[in-house]
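Lab notebook page, bench 4
Experiment: in silico fold of construct C2
Operator: M.H.
Input chain length: 257 residues
Purpose: comparison with the prior construct
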Amino acid sequence: MTRWQRFLRMAFAALVARPVVRLWLGVNVRHQERLPLRGPAIVAANHNSHLDICTLLSLFPLARVPDVQPAAAADYFMKGGPLTWIARNLVGIVPVVRGGGRAGSAKAKAGAAAGNGNGNGNGSAAGNGERRDPLEGCYQALERGGILVIFPEGTRGEPEQMQALKSGIAHLARRFPDAPVIPLYMHGLGKSMPKGSFVPLPVFVDIFVGRPLSWRANALDDKTVFMQTLTDRFASLRLKARPTRDDAHDDVDQENA
């Protein structure tokens, strides 16, 4: 990563992310001290809004923002044009080729393009027709000592609803067994800027940072056990969120069972 890229990312956090989150939204953060300031570390967050990444970046000290890299879909953010430039240089995403794919496919090419000269990419593509690991860029970010932000649901869900977690995060935790995995639950952003929305509404947001876990420290030597533990952590954090009128129908009693 160049000095210019570090400057751009800090400027984006200071001039865009923080003002939007702190001035336009009302944000209450519980246990912000649990967020990592050094890597390798993984922040696992729920995903309901395009504001999620800006909100997460606003939680870190400016000096640490360049080390925070959100994993994001290569097929969405790496199509070229202004969005790709913003994703690579201002946000610093780690492109993930969803569903794996072959190096010769359009998705794989998009993911590989992120590795050309920007300091946070997936590396070069494999040979034509060869399967490539969709988490390759995430491995590289953690090997560099980065703070990886991952949305284990895999895609944005409906407002204030959580989908089943995908197992990619378990592969990351197993490969980096000493890296802390910090669950983080955001409540309210799905109402502020859900799918299909382009203008954020001023909505109060609750953010709950959970206790870190790791593959080695918690003796989570099985993928199923790790995923269940992480799912339980999210369920516990979600119960702490204040209900809104639109999600009052949620079956909280079922989560308490």
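Observations: The chain has one domain: 3-256. Residues 3-24 form the longest helix (22 residues).
Next step: discuss at group meeting.
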